[in-house]
Amino acid sequence: MSGAIDVAVAIVGGGIHGAGIAQAAAAAGHSVVLLEQTAAAAGSSSRSSKLIHGGLRYLETGQFHLVRESLHERTTLLRLAPGLVRLRRFYVPIYSQTRRRPWQLTVGLSLYALLSGFGRGAGFGTVPRSQWKSLDGLDQDGLQHVFFYHDAQTDDRAMTEAVLRSGQQLGVRMLCPAQFRNACLREDSVDVSFTCSGSEQQCHARVLVNAAGPWADRLARNITPAIPVPTLECVQGSHLIMDSAAPQGLYYVESPRDGRAIFVMPWHEKLMIGTTETRFRGDPGKVAPTPAEIHYLLGVLKHYFPRFRSDGAAQISASFAGIRVLPGGAGHAFHRSRETLLTADRSDRPRVLSIYGGKLTTWRAVSARAMALIASSLLKRTPVARTDHLSLS
Ligand SMILES: Cc1cc2nc3c(=O)[nH]c(=O)nc-3n(C[C@H](O)[C@H](O)[C@H](O)COP(=O)(O)OP(=O)(O)OC[C@H]3O[C@@H](n4cnc5c(N)ncnc54)[C@H](O)[C@@H]3O)c2cc1C
Predict the structure, then answer these.
(1) Same structural domain, 185 and 143
(2) Among 2, 24, 136, 177, which residue has the fewest nearby CB atoms (within 10 Å)?
(3) Among 153, 177, 198, which residue terminates a domain?
(4) Do 37 and 166 have their domain in common?
(5) Predicted model pTM
């Protein structure tokens, strides 16, 4: 491939996983090129609920490993990115008709504190009745208890950009807009074709990392010879930003319709509510909230915050949707695993590593796992930095 870029690691996707793996690979001393078709964090990494959290509700589905790892990452990110990740107080109101009962909350929050190692943000308890009036107009009718606990909030796009900058400072070459077209596997390397600035270009890499988020299965199908692609399901999640002042706290409420957990939170001086889970089969670049999702979220908001019930009170100032990639399977997406799936074309000296699904919160842990999986394909290098020492801003 004359004129081709020659690198150790070629990464497709400028979302949090592409950014994280680029940073980790460059820190380990490898040459890295990252291709992004639109802009940094153009996909799910700017359309999340913006939480750096253990995921209290994942305890209900027994995902203890994921919760513990996420809480550990929360602690690390609070240390590495204090300007981007902030600890917040979350409130969980319990009404007479709430499905999750107080004892379940007490058990869940105790376990959450335990899995966090009783570190920063492990404190939880109940809000005294005398203080309920200060809870952003939360409906008091039938209210029995209000639990509080802590988790963190971030700006997902800013976080992704900060990780990309960190990688670039270590030598990552980012090409944007640059769109992956196809790849051809060789004995111990991979030839990647992409378009950049309107021209066809090539890259020769020891490993191709497919971090294309909701596009990852399409990308994997453009590799020859064919590589295994797991059965996946794409689920869209929508958020509404209301034309209303930001609440003081974050509320973890239960949808009265189906019991799903919904967050009501401050976002850039406004109130944001999300999210939904709707099966998605279209073009990931065109995902947008559906009328049914908007109706559902407004219903939850009005149910818990009576001030939005009067005519014209619930004005939407913006909305967005993102796509989760989940392992395929039976049952509702809400109960499906949130673990990140890492698949290689072969176990020894992989030439392609694909990342499917996952959480914003666990990007460092996933990046470390990805590096371990591709280590046998890379030449030994002297690390130039430790990612757990690289502050992000
Ligand atoms: C609604 C919703 C709420 C969520 N809330 C949270 C939360 O609160 N906390 C949490 O921890 N996690 C949350 N998540 C999960 C988290 O947002 C995602 O797991 C994470 O952002 C995925 O990042 P990624 O890098 O894998 O993919 P993406 O961010 O989607 O990045 C993929 C990138 O690849 C690029 N790309 C695709 N194809 C090509 C190509 N051919 N050539 C070049 N570039 C290409 C795209 O443009 C895109 O920028 C949420 C997810 C959703 C959908």
Answers:
(1) no
(2) 2
(3) 153
(4) yes
(5) 0.97
pLDDT tens for 371-380 read: 999 999 999 9
Residues 238 and 226 in one domain: no
* 215 located within any domain: yes
What is the mean pLDDT of each successive set of 10 residues along the chain, which is 393 residues long? 86 98 98 98 98 93 94 97 98 95 96 94 96 97 98 98 98 98 98 95 98 97 96 96 96 95 97 97 96 98 97 94 87 71 96 97 98 98 97 97
Query: How many whole angstroms from 19 Cα to the centroid of ligand 1?
Result: 11
Q: Domain tally for the chain? A: 3
Among 126, 153, 180, where does a domain finish?
153
Encode the chain in three state secondary structure. Answer: CCCCEEEEEEEECCCHHHHHHHHHHHHCCCCEEEECCCCCCCCHHHCCCCEECCCHHHHCCCCHHHHHHHHHHHHHHHHHCCCCEEEEEEEEEEECCCCCCHHHHHHHHHHHHHHCCCCCCCCCEECCHHHHHHCCCCCCCCEEEEEEEEEEEECHHHHHHHHHHHHHHCCCEEECCEEEEEEEECCCCEEEEEEECCEEEEEEEEEEEECCHHHHHHHHCCEECCCCCCCEEEEEEEEEEEEEECCCCEEEEECCCCCCEEEEEEECCEEEEECCCEECCCCHHHCCCCHHHHHHHHHHHHHHCHHHCCCCCCCEEEEEEEEEEEECCCCCHHHCCCCCEEEECCCCCCCEEEEECCCCCCHHHHHHHHHHHHHHHCCCCCCCCCHHHCCCC
Owning domain of residue 135: 66-153
Ligand 1 pocket list (CB less than 6 A) = 12-18, 35-38, 42-45, 47-51, 179-180, 211-215, 219, 237, 275, 322-324, 355, 358-361
Locate the ligand 1 atom nearest the alpha carbon of residue 17 and give its number: 25
Q: Identify the CA nearest to 312 among candidates 245, 243, 257.
A: 243
Same domain, 162 and 195: yes
Q: Is residue 333 part of a domain?
A: no
Amino acid identity, position 382 = T
Q: How far apart are CA 202 and CA 190, in angstroms?
A: 10
